[in-house]
Specification:
Blueprint (H helix, E strand, L loop, with lengths): L2 E3 L4 H13 L1 H11 L4 H16 L6 H15 L4 H16 L4 E3 H9 L1
Helix pairs in contact: 1-3, 2-3, 3-4, 4-5, 5-6
Length: about 110
C-alpha cells in the first residue's frame, strides 16, 4: 500500500463495513467460544448504521473513523461498543491532521 488521501478515504471505510458484514457469522461464532456470541451481530449493526448514514455523504477517513466510533460507543450495546468506539475515535484523532495516510501513518493511528 502506498498512501491514500485522507479526504478521499471513504472507500476504505466502506470496505471495512463490507468486511464486517461479510464476516458477521464468523465473528459471532468465535465470540460464542468464550462469550455470548453476539459480537458479530453487534459489529454488523454498528457498521451498517454507519454505512446507511454516510453512504451518500462526503467524509474523510479520519472523520469517518470518528463517526463510526461515536455510533459504536453511543448506539451499540455490550462491551464491544465502548471498546471499538474508543479505538476508532482515538485513531481518528491521531490522523485528523494528515493529508495523506501511509501504511506507517495507519500503524501510528492503530497504536493510538
Amino acid at each position: 500500500m502506498g498512501a491514500f488521501k485522507n479526504a478521499a478515504g471513504k472507500p476504505v471505510l466502506m470496505r471495512m463495513v463490507k468486511g464486517i458484514q461479510d464476516n458477521k457469522a464468523y465473528l459471532g461464532e468465535v465470540d460464542g467460544l468464550i462469550g455470548d456470541g453476539d459480537h458479530g451481530m453487534n459489529m454488523n449493526k454498528g457498521f451498517s448504521v454507519f454505512e446507511e448514514r454516510f453512504k451518500d455523504e462526503d467524509i474523510s477517513f479520519s472523520e469517518g473513523l470518528d463517526e463510526l466510533g461515536m455510533i459504536l460507543l453511543n448506539e451499540i450495546g455490550g462491551s464491544m461498543g465502548p471498546i471499538y468506539g474508543t479505538i476508532f475515535m482515538d485513531m481518528a484523532e491521531a490522523g485528523e491532521d494528515l493529508d495523506e495516510i501511509t501504511a506507517a501513518d495507519l500503524g501510528t493511528m492503530l497504536e493510538a
